[in-house]
Write the structure tokens for this entry.
Amino acid sequence: MDVTIPLATLATVGRIFALIGIAIFTGHLLAYAAIKSRNFENVYVPLVNVFESIPVIGFLPLVLVAFVLTFHGSIGIELAVDFLVFDAVAWNVWIGIYQAFKTVPLHLVEVSDNYNMSFWKKMTTLFVPHSIPRVTSNIFSSFADAFFYISVSEVFTAGAATANLCPRGTCSTFGIGTLISQYTTSGDYVGVYYCLISVAVAVIAVTVVLSRLSKWAIAKFGVDTPGVIKRYAGRWRGRLVTSPWRAFRNQTNVFRGYASRLRPTPREGRPEAGGAKRVNVAKYAGISVAVAVLALLVYASAKVVASVSAQTWYGFFRETPQLLEYVGADYVRVSLIALASLALAVTVGYLLATHRRAGDAALPVVQVLAAFPAPTYFPLLFIATLPFLEHALPTLYTEVYIFILGFLSCFYYVFFDFWIGVLAIPSEFVEVTQNYRLPFLTRMRRVILPASLPYMITGLSSTINSAWAGIAIGEYWPNLAPQVAPNGLQVKFGMMYYISSNMAVGQIGAAAYVSLLFAIVVAIYGIAFTRNLMDLARKKYVVEEGIFAA
Amino acid sequence: MASLSIESEARTREGKILEGQDLSYHYPGATKPVFEGINLFTKSDELIAVVGPTGTGKSTLLRVLAQLIPQASGKVFLDGVEVTRPSPKISLVHQSIATFPWMTALDNVNLVLAGSGMDEQEAIQLGKRMLSLVGLQGFEGYYPKEMSGGMRQRVAIARALAASPEVLLLDEPFVHLDELTANEIRKEVYDLVFNPATTLKSAVLVSHNLHEVVQLADRVYVMNSSPAIIVDVVKIDLQRPRTERDPGFLDYVDLLYKGLNVKKAKL
């Protein structure tokens, strides 16, 4: 095996985690702004849904070229690749943190308000700790998603735009996705298999670590969850306690103590009960950001609209009913995929959450299935099954393949979110269901599903939004296994087919117009589904509030 | 006033409803058991209490008696039959008032009737009757967040009663309530234990409040030491209803207090 394979795997894992780290950091700031400002929330949630839904690979070649042109050479390519990977990892982390912030128990929010906690104090003592279980569950999905598309994220082409920028018009950076792509192009399938083995080892190792991290997070940051909080004694504990940071913090605390004794707070500066109304900085900042983003969108849209001739617009409008039918057809496909994913989550996910050993054994398998880059192994599956499926389902076999690709690309979001949602149910509620021997269906319908609803909304939202990328691959893959299918895999009735086929022949305007229609539909969905369901969860389904005494 | 020796108590085990025999429990990862060799039982129309310093595993003991967690050793019997899994006949009322926030008071109560074979109308009537029994008539449609702590605890008790339990396990059920409400519910709970309208035969109360324990309990098991053991069993021999002004009331409180402190000094 080439020694660069494990190194490339490590580079990819490092890149993914660095970008997940950035997504977590920015996600906390944005989520806080969203819960503080309804205006910002109304812009933020639909935008995240749009970004999560639209497969960036097909739609943003200009952005990638902009990176390469602006930063030149390998830095530009690295940033462009990072942008693609960030697109795979960020949105569900952002939505997860937003969901966590929306469902912080009211009692705890009141405590933080009661003591006039600063933004920093609120974040470090309440919002960030409360979001940790959601963040850890979303890392599962983000990691899987990043790997799923790694062979098309670390290597990209943007047609004529990149022809002169990178060797043979293909830009790439060091990583396992690039190696897989290179081995595939050169027909070195042994190399591809070694790469996949290396990916599997990395995914299993990361899954084991994440699984433990999730259980620790649930035990420590969930309210009265059944898990036991593990404390890490021994040499690391000593090192952590005497870390330079802690020493520095202690020093500054000492100075702060002296300072506060020397300089008592003037009476007029002290917070008073029912005192003067404070200026809501977050609210106005939220409004400002929301207005700025909207203004930018309106400006960009106006420029685009003005640059297109009236005749072209007329053609687009005439086609709109047909295009909406394409959108509708793809929504039916997405709905089926989402329903299947949900069904898998509430059955297998529940089983793994409630049976520790089964969970320990099966989670890495699920994670490997979720993370394995489908574009690398799907052709083999296609070649092996096409004769049978084409014979058995002559009119529907393409739909089956689209379903498989779509399902593989997104089922894990709702799966992992539901799994951790079940783990996070307070032990008192679990005990009530055990004590009264509630039948399985009653337990699911009355307790488990409502109690995990906030998690489920997040997961389902990301599953629905992420299904589009898998569908995009499935609806238009013309060069898939030409030895058994001369036209590859194509379905004529679907928005993603329309976009991809138009992009392939340079009809960017038509692709952009249907993308715009799609973005509008997704934005409406973002408000109607994600935000409204999250509001409902906030009002009624914050399980932690049920075990607090008044 | 009578402090029974453990040996003499063992000789009087007849007509027992719930019995724990030689129970011990280890927390996962702990090097020693939290309690061991615990023997206790309840008789018909009897409310027993378990007291002990914090950390002796009283709440854990209740969960073991309900078979919500498995003991490391020992056995639990209900009416002489070994209990190996949770049963609605042994209903636990949690300290933290576990009411489901998305269900109304009536839905919270009726939850335990699912799978009982009872038709919907019958279940609704029973739920209403149980809520009425704990003084919540007219609040059937309220959500937990629209109720006070005392009302929520009554909902939890009504839910436990709707399951037709023989034994009620009460884990510090009054600790979050104000004194007036707590006093009111204490009386209600005691009346319920001996109310022929319910299926209850006995109850086990865990509490830190020694006055409450003397007011309610027929016998008191005192847990102490580490691992915790039963260090004393005190029979409360006072007329009912009891108040702190009754002669001998405070003597029992002192006796229990001594039981909690003697072993502590030795630790």
